[in-house]
Design a protein that fits this description.
Immunoglobulin-like, five-stranded antiparallel β-sheet, four-stranded mixed β-sheet, globular
Length: about 130
């Protein structure tokens, strides 16, 4: 291998993985949270979200886990669960999620995590925290 070819390959390696998104554990996410919003109205919080299966496998019974967080940004006040309507979310597919939850007092933000129907944790991307309006 010539010196020029070696340096070209050596300098190009860091850019080969540039387009791949990775989680905190270095593995690619399985679910991406495309958008999420929460609005307070008369003792109820309405949550609207859109998710995408960005993994390589279908996800059966995708569960949405919502942690409501206190003003200190650390303490989880309560956790609520919900699911998308579709039984299976194939790779590349998107789905909406809507929920109405009794307003947890003192909650100022929320985070979202994911599990499949077998309670297996799924790595997520762009999961918050998000403010509650």
């Amino acid at each position: 291998m010539t010196r020029r070819a070696f340096w070209t390959l050596f300098l190009a390696l860091p850019f080969a993985a540039f387009g791949q998104k990775k989680g905190k554990d270095g593995k690619p996410p399985e679910v991406e949270l495309l958008e999420a919003a929460a609005h307070r109205q008369e003792g109820i919080i309405s949550i609207d979200a859109r998710v995408k299966n960005c993994g390589e496998k279908s996800i059966k019974s995708l569960q949405i886990i919502i942690d409501f967080v206190a003003p200190d940004h650390k303490q989880v006040i309560t956790t609520k669960r919900g699911s998308i309507e579709a039984e299976v979310l194939d790779p590349g597919e998107e789905a909406d999620f809507h929920a109405r939850i009794e307003d947890p007092s003192r909650a100022t933000e929320f985070r979202i995590n994911f599990e499949d129907g077998g309670a297996k944790y799924l790595r997520g991307l762009n999961t918050g925290p998000f403010p509650i309006d």
